[in-house]
Write a structure and sequence with these properties.
4 helices; two-stranded antiparallel ribbon
Length: 134
């Protein structure tokens, strides 16, 4: 069974878009291979699932790196610091890089995931995931 995570851009209670280039630039140093709609990351089993086009609503990650020192986590934080996004996992929790993102989350998202934790360091993501028992 795979552990899946998601990053979604939100604005005024709706899902919105941001430049795909932000994700490409952040992950570029450790993309092992690309195929249509997905990237394989080096030194992990992780697959990043991302739509085509100049703007995306977010992306999914199957099997994110289990090493909290993997550069994926720093890149994720950089993406979130540049965008109004929420990182989450089903039946687990959610994380934001800016507290002012929370009021922009859709009400049903807040209801199902709860109030997100705040990530200020790359290791925070893994700590929050582990803390939820995922």
């Amino acid at each position: 069974m795979s552990f899946d995570t998601y990053l979604t851009c939100v604005d005024h209670g709706k899902v919105c878009r941001f430049p795909r280039s932000i994700v490409e630039e952040a992950f570029a140093p450790f993309i092992e291979s690309k195929s249509e709609g997905s990237w394989k990351l080096v030194d992990s089993l992780a697959d990043v699932w991302i739509g085509a086009g100049p703007e995306v609503t977010g992306f999914g990650v199957s099997r994110p790196p289990g090493d909290k020192q993997h550069p994926f986590w720093r890149a994720l934080l950089e993406i979130m610091q540049k965008t109004q996004t929420v990182f989450f996992w089903i039946d687990g929790g959610a994380v934001v890089a800016h507290l002012d993102v929370i009021p922009h989350m859709p009400p049903d998202m807040l209801e199902s995931l709860g109030t997100p934790a705040l990530a200020t360091e790359p290791g925070d993501f893994w700590d929050y995931i582990q803390g939820t028992g995922a």
